[in-house]
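Protocol step 4 of 6: structure prediction from sequence.
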Amino acid sequence: MREVKSDIIRDTIRSMFIEASCSLTSDIKDKLLEYRNIEISDSACEILDRIIENAELALKDRIPICQDTGMSVVFIEIGQDVHVTGDNITDAINEGVRRAYKDGFLRKSIVKDPLNRINTGDNTPAIIYYDIVKGDKISIKVMPKGFGSENMSAVKMLKPSDGVDGIISFVVDTVKKAGSNPCPPIIVGIGIGGTMEKAALLSKKTLLRSLDKRNTNNYYAELENRLLIEINNLGIGPQGLGGISTALGVSIETFPTHIAGLPVAVNITCHASRHKEAVI
């Protein structure tokens, strides 16, 4: 049994959230440059140039890419041969978030109650998803999820007879209704199957996938490409001012479901799609 001190988890979480808030992943940088080179709208090109410049300045000056530094979402896989010593692991994660948002001068956006709206003052509690896996390591993925894009997400319980055409219609319509609100170019995560909440979880988790990777199932990889084309044909463009760069990517994850259902969830993120991964 391998022991891991909770302090290590705390400090890793702290560093990951600061880093995620100030630097784009390389796959997103590459996609922004790729779309800048094929964009046909002058205004869209100008906006993409500013987005790229903003990312470069954020990295250079160690300041957040966006003023909305998000709600703290953590996906953690714990090896069954790991024993965490010290503080409770949930407390350690929240303390890491607390320190990240204080030390990194990140905006604290979380309220204690959805209706009373009193700020917690430290961006906790984080939303944490645990999985127990084989091995003696702890894998951590963090996502500071902004709500300009989160608010544009949707879940729909389709009928099995709606099939792939129903899925395409729902996804494209969701993006169309979102318009400029999620600060396009966006990345679209789609969860299909399971139950209502499982589809929603899949749609968020798939946003962690690198943009240069497709679904390992060729059928769904082709569906990702088809949806990306249809979304970019909407003409929404960067910041909603027109162009072919509405989305940088589409990712799909699936799960077995009931014979009577076809749950579909769409989770949208802005071009920043801030996230980091680490293994302890």
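Step 5 (inspection) to follow. Residues 16 and 119 are 23 Å apart (CA to CA).
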